[in-house]
Recover the amino acids of this structure.
């Protein structure tokens, strides 16, 4: 298996660090996320604009996890999240919080048709055999394509994922996708999600029309966060903002600057457009208490 499209972003922020590695493949997407002294609350997850037929296999490898604001559970644990429990959280859906110092999670976004377990947080933790947890640990220790491949294989052998998921992997992507990802990869690595299409077109040496076509194809082919490239960037920036608002000692203005909104007013408008509470209200709900550093 060769997952050509991958990138890693590391963003220190005050006492906290946010590190993500993304792997893109046509049938699934994987994220390995390390949040050090940061808290994620799915109740404030910015919704994609369109529904999708994907679900998330969400594994907490290190740190704490709390369902519906209940008692936190620590240690390795895995759940299957419905689309409306993560990508597009809807009223009445269960929510969860995860945190740690550090907290490490692995998200696998797969078609619901490839998942062989009951879907939904309230079905509780998945029972996974030791070889699967060993594969998760190997991916955490050395994030890379071979480690991800082994994880997918082990999940298939355990009957969690369909056996043909690995056979669907494309060994080499078209040159236009590779060329475009070469331009987008540094943007992801630098968390430069506010880059304009014109800026990307100049770097990629493409016309705006051709860039629009290629980005549309890339977004649809790899299932990137909903309704198109602009929506993908909107969701990425909002997610980063919500996570950074949990950082101890951070101010909303500092968060607006680090994620590229330019001003607190601009971030506030983006939150309103996404039907999220004001940044100050979100911050009060998600701020990482320093006392949790030892618990995570």
């Amino acid at each position: 298996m060769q997952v050509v499209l991958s990138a890693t972003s590391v963003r220190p922020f005050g006492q906290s660090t946010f590190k993500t590695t993304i792997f893109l493949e046509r049938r699934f997407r994987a994220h390995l996320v390390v949040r050090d002294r940061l808290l994620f609350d799915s109740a404030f997850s910015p919704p994609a604009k369109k529904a999708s037929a994907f679900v998330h296999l969400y594994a907490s490898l290190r740190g704490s996890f709390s369902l519906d604001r209940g008692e936190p559970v620590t240690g390795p644990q895995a759940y299957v999240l419905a689309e409306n429990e993560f990508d597009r959280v809807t009223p009445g859906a269960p929510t969860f919080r995860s945190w740690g110092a550090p907290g490490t999670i692995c998200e696998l976004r797969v078609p619901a048709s490839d998942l062989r377990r009951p879907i939904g947080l309230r079905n509780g933790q998945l029972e996974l055999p030791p070889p699967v947890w060993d594969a998760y640990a190997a991916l955490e220790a050395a994030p890379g394509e071979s480690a991800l491949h082994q994880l997918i294989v082990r999940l298939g052998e355990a009957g969690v994922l369909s056996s043909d998921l690995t056979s669907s992997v494309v060994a080499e992507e078209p040159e236009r996708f590779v060329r475009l990802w070469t331009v987008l990869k540094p943007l992801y690595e630098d968390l430069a999600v506010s880059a304009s299409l014109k800026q990307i077109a100049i770097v990629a040496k493409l016309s705006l029309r051709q860039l629009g076509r290629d980005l549309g194809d890339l977004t649809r082919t790899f299932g990137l966060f909903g309704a198109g490239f602009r929506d993908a960037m909107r969701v990425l920036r909002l997610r980063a903002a919500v996570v950074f608002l949990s950082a101890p000692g951070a101010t909303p203005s500092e968060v607006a600057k680090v994620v590229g909104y330019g001003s607190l007013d601009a971030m506030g408008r983006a939150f309103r457009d996404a039907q999220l509470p004001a940044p100050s209200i979100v911050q009060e709900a998600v701020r990482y208490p320093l006392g949790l550093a030892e618990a995570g």
